[in-house]
Design brief:
Blueprint lengths: L9 H5 L7 H30 L10 H23 L20 H8 L7 H18 L12 H14 L1 H8 L3 H5 L8 H20 L2 H5 L12 E6 L3 E2 L5 H4 L9 E15 L2 E5 L5 E3 L5 E18 L4
Antiparallel strand pairs: 1-6, 2-6, 3-4, 3-5, 3-6
Helix pairs in contact: 2-3, 2-4
Length: about 325
């Protein structure tokens, strides 16, 4: 029976053809479909609503909304293949699902507001230029990550959420078409009740259920092989003495495993798009040749152990 403590070994995680055990594949598949599909089509619907077209299948501009949704799904698939399989230096070659982003919705809405289909030309032009800018930024983002601490990124995410509050309230009340057409069900108790039920169910699953029900597949670190032996360790580092190289993406050599041992305090450990908080008794496992980085959380003392698998025979 497969070991379900981890989804796969680092080698298997790099293989786009690898299939995890069925007990993990089913909840992962359901999670990805629910999270990816809805979040992919929603930005297109929000932008079309702000521009003032695509209200119902009988609308003359409805094909434009369908086109935006289709392009969102198509390029989400293309980007996912690039991330998973890779093309030269492009792609993480990990099972990363790409999709559309809500981050730019607060900019897109005023750009197209009330302009109908005519506003799409400027919007699509901005999307192309923004994509090229992000592609260039990705070449050296690791070098400037020190300038983007959690305080900065957290404020950015908060501002995005606040900018989308009005959109959320509009749709909870009945949607843009109902408001624009002055339908009596806009703001009705039925619509507000449905929105409140969704909020209550979401918060209930988040705070009062077990991890498997809450997250479908909680992130886990790779399992350290049982036959690994420590052959070297670093000196103890603190939040002020940690080498800069550990604060940006780096990796161990082929065949070399690592174990980050926190002696005091807490340490953030990022690997493969996931983030873990390490503490005494909760070490971080580093798989060979996998990019990772750490970030002190206040006062901390830690060291790193390097391990190799014991020779056979």
């Amino acid at each position: 029976m497969p070991d379900l403590r981890t989804i796969a070994t680092p080698e298997q995680m790099r293989d786009p053809d690898f299939t995890p055990p069925l007990a993990r594949a089913i909840p992962l598949g359901i999670q990805h479909v629910l999270a990816m599909f809805v979040s992919n089509v929603t930005p297109a619907i929000i932008v079309a609503g702000a521009a003032g077209f695509g209200f119902g299948s009988q609308s003359p501009d409805f094909p434009e909304l369908l086109y935006m949704i289709q392009m969102s799904m198509l390029f989400a698939g293309v980007a996912t293949l690039l991330q998973t399989i890779g093309a030269g230096p492009v792609g993480a070659r990990l099972p990363v699902v790409q999709g559309t982003s809500f981050a730019f919705i607060p900019i897109m809405i005023p750009l197209v507001a009330g302009k109908g289909v005519d506003g799409l030309a400027a919007l699509f032009g901005g999307v192309v230029l923004g994509g090229l800018f992000h592609a260039c930024l990705g070449m050296f983002i690791g070098r400037i990550r020190f300038a983007l601490p959690p305080l900065v990124t957290g404020l950015v995410v908060t501002m995005i959420g606040l900018a989308l509050v009005r959109v959320g309230i509009d749709y909870a009340a009945g949607g843009v078409p109902a408001r624009v057409n002055g339908l009596p069900e806009y703001g009705s108790l039925l619509n507000w009740s449905a929105a409140l039920v969704v909020i209550a169910v979401t918060l209930g699953f988040k705070f009062f259920t077990r991890a498997m029900t809450r997250d479908a597949a909680p992130p886990e670190q790779p399992a350290l092989p049982a036959d690994c032996e420590v052959y070297r360790r670093t000196r103890s580092f603190t939040e002020t003495s940690v080498p800069r190289g550990l604060l940006r993406e780096h990796s161990t050599a082929a065949g070399v495993w690592g174990r980050i041992v926190v002696e005091r305090g807490a340490l953030r450990y990022r690997v493969g798009g996931l983030q873990f908080t390490l503490a005494p008794g909760t070490p971080g496992i580093i798989a060979p040749e996998v990019l990772h980085e750490v970030e002190p959380v206040g006062e901390v003392t830690f060291h790193v152990e390097f391990l190799r698998r014991a020779p056979v025979g």
